[in-house]
Design brief:
- By secondary structure, the chain is an alpha/beta fold.
- The chain has 4 domains: about 130 residues, 3-Layer(aba) Sandwich (Rossmann fold); about 110 residues, 2-Layer Sandwich (Beta-Lactamase); about 70 residues, Helix Hairpins (Orthogonal Bundle); about 160 residues, Heat Shock Protein 90.
- It is about 45% helix and about 20% strand.
- Strand 8 and strand 9 form a beta hairpin.
- Helix 2 packs parallel to helix 3, helix 11 packs parallel to helix 14 and helix 13 packs antiparallel against helix 14.
- The longest helix has about 40 residues.
- It starts with 7 loop residues before the first strand and ends with a strand.
C-alpha cells in the first residue's frame, strides 16, 4: 500500500465550503491536501508541484472543469482525476468519465463517500507503481541477459539483417545498427521507447502487439511485408516471434528484418519487361492471324486439304500466343495493383451465355457438349465486368482443352445467400493430387502424356484466382485423374 505521506491531493472547487470540507476530511486520513478556487489556479499549481490525485469541480466560472480535465489528460496522463458534480449535472460527470476521469463524487457528499473514492484511487496508484516496478525488473532482466552474452551481441551488431527485441509491453530493450539503418531512423538509442514511438509504423506496431498476445506453446511467429516511405521506397520482410521463459510465459518479442527492396525492384523490372514484350508481340501476331484467315478461308485462292490442315494448326498456335500475351498483360495489371478498373452491375448468366457461344466452335470440333444450369432469378453482381469475363472464359476454356473427345462440360450458377456460386465441371483428364496445390501458381502447367498437345502458358488459373480474390471471393478445385475436374467460385454480390 502506498504511504499516506507520499500522496499529494489537489482540490479545485469554486465553493469554499467544499474546498475546506474536503481538506478536513482528507488531512485527517494523513494525506497532503492543496486547495485552488479556480481552474487556472489549479493548472498553475500543477506546473509547480507533482500531485497524484485531483478532485475537480466541473461547474466553475472562468475555465471550466471539463477544460481543465482535457488539459490534464494531455500533459499529465498519470494524474488520477475525480470529478465533483451536483446531481443536476450527472450527465456531465459521465461525459467526464469518457474523457478520462477515474471516478466522480456527487454533491452534496458525506465524508465517507470522499474517503471511499480517494482510497480506491490510492489503491490504483499502488497497483500502478507495483506494475511499473515489475516491468522495470523484467526490462533489467532482458538487458542483463543481453549484456551477459557479449559474443552474441557482437555477432548481432554486425548482422546484415535488422534485429529488434521488446519486453512484454512492447517497449524496446535491444536493437542492432542494421535495423536503425533499414528503418531510416536516427542513431540515438531507442531503449525504453515503444515500437510505435520509435518507428511510427502501424504495421510493425500491430505485428509486435499480435505476437505478444500469442499462445506461448504454439511455437509460431508472424511474417509480414512492410513498405516504408510515401510513395514506398524501401521494402522489408519482418519476421516476429515471442520470447518465452521456461514456464511458457511471454516476456517479450524478437523481430528480424530482411531488406527485400532489391527483390521488389527486380520484380518490377520483370513486370515492365513482360508488359513491353506483350505489347510488342500482340500487334504483329494479330496481323499474321488475319493474313492466315484470308488464306484458310479461300479468299486469296484455292489451297489443298493438307495445306489447310497445316495452316489451321498454325492458326491454333498463334491464337495460343495471342491469348498468352493478353494474359501476360493482365498479369502485369495484377502486380501493379490495377486489377479492378471499374465496378458495375453484371449479369452472370449473360457472361456464361456469351462465353459458351464464343467457345462453341472449339467444343464442336472435339464433340464436347455443354450443359448450363442457372437460377431463374439469379442475383446480379457488382463487379468488374471485363475481369469476370476472364474468369468465366478461362474456366470454360480449360474445361474444353483438358477434356476428352466426346466429353461434356457442365456450368451452373446459383444464389447462395449474399453470394453467387459458379461451378464448372468437366469429364476430362483430371489433376493428380500432387499437382493440386500448385495449379494456381504462375506458369505452372500439368505435364503428362494426355496434356502434351494442350497449348497454354500457365497464367490462366493464377489470373482467375487473382480476379476472384480481388472481388473478395474464393475459388476451390476438386479433381481426380481420369474422372474430371470441378472448379467452384464464390463471389459476394457486393450490392
Amino acid at each position: 500500500m502506498t504511504n499516506r505521506d507520499e500522496i499529494h491531493i489537489l482540490v479545485v472547487d469554486d465553493e469554499q465550503v467544499i474546498r475546506e470540507g474536503s481538506q478536513r476530511i482528507l488531512t485527517k486520513e494523513g494525506w497532503n491536501v492543496t486547495l485552488a478556487e479556480r481552474g487556472d489556479r489549479g493548472l498553475e499549481l500543477m506546473d509547480k508541484q507533482q500531485f497524484h490525485i485531483l478532485l475537480l469541480d466541473l461547474m466553475m466560472p472562468g475555465i471550466s472543469g471539463m477544460d481543465v480535465l482535457k488539459k490534464v489528460r494531455e500533459s499529465r496522463p498519470e494524474l488520477i482525476v475525480i470529478v465533483v458534480t451536483g446531481y443536476a449535472t450527472i450527465e456531465n460527470a459521465v461525459e467526464a468519465m469518457k474523457n478520462g476521469a477515474y471516478d466522480f463524487i456527487p454533491k452534496p457528499f458525506t465524508p465517507d463517500q470522499v474517503r471511499i473514492v480517494v482510497r480506491r484511487a490510492i489503491e490504483k496508484i499502488s497497483l500502478q507503481r507495483e506494475a511499473q516496478r515489475l516491468r522495470g525488473e523484467q526490462e533489467r532482466s532482458l538487458r542483463d541477459i543481453a549484456n551477459e552474452k557479449s559474443k552474441t551481441l557482437t555477432i548481432m551488431n554486425h548482422m546484415a539483417d535488422g534485429v529488434l527485441v521488446t519486453d512484454e509491453q512492447g517497449s524496446i530493450v535491444l536493437n542492432n545498427p542494421a535495423v536503425t539503418h533499414m528503418l531510416g531512423l536516427e542513431e540515438k538509442s531507442p531503449l525504453g521507447k515503444s515500437i510505435s514511438q520509435w518507428t511510427h509504423n502501424e504495421v510493425l506496431s500491430n505485428m509486435v502487439a499480435a505476437v505478444l498476445k500469442m499462445d506461448p506453446s504454439s511455437n509460431h511467429g508472424i511474417s509480414q511485408e512492410c513498405a516504408l516511405g510515401d510513395p514506398p521506397k524501401t521494402f522489408l520482410m519482418a519476421h516476429a516471434a515471442p520470447v518465452c521463459t521456461g514456464q511458457q510465459e511471454i516476456i517479450g518479442s524478437v523481430t528480424i528484418f530482411n531488406d527485400i527492396t532489391w527483390l521488389k525492384e527486380l520484380d518490377q523490372m520483370k513486370s515492365d519487361f513482360v508488359n513491353m514484350v506483350s505489347h510488342e508481340l500482340r500487334s504483329p501476331l494479330s496481323a499474321v492471324r488475319q493474313k492466315l484467315s484470308l488464306i484458310t478461308e479461300g479468299i486469296t485462292g484455292e489451297i489443298t486439304d493438307e495445306q489447310s490442315r497445316i495452316l489451321t494448326r498454325v492458326q491454333s498456335r498463334i491464337d495460343g500466343l495471342i491469348g498468352m500475351t493478353r494474359n501476360l498483360l493482365d498479369l502485369s495489371r495484377i502486380e501493379a495493383g490495377r486489377l479492378i478498373q471499374q465496378k458495375e452491375k453484371v449479369c452472370v448468366s449473360e457472361l456464361i451465355d456469351e462465353a459458351l457461344e464464343s467457345l462453341a466452335h472449339e467444343a464442336d470440333k472435339r464433340g464436347i457438349t455443354f450443359d448450363a444450369t442457372i437460377d431463374s432469378q439469379l442475383y446480379p453482381l457488382y463487379a468488374d465486368r471485363q475481369n469476370l469475363e476472364t474468369v468465366v472464359i478461362n474456366l470454360l476454356s480449360n474445361a474444353i482443352k483438358y477434356n476428352r473427345d466426346q466429353g461434356a462440360v457442365s456450368v451452373s450458377a446459383h444464389n447462395r445467400g449474399e453470394f453467387i456460386e459458379l461451378n464448372v465441371r468437366d469429364t476430362g483428364v483430371g489433376i493428380a493430387q500432387k499437382d493440386l496445390p500448385h495449379i494456381f501458381d504462375k506458369f505452372f502447367r500439368i505435364r503428362s502424356e494426355s496434356t502434351r498437345d494442350v497449348i497454354g502458358s500457365g497464367i490462366g488459373l493464377p489470373l482467375v484466382k487473382a480476379v476472384v480474390e480481388a472481388h473478395l471471393g474464393t475459388i476451390s478445385v476438386d479433381s481426380s485423374p481420369g474422372k474430371g475436374t470441378a472448379f467452384t467460385v464464390l463471389l459476394p454480390r457486393g450490392m
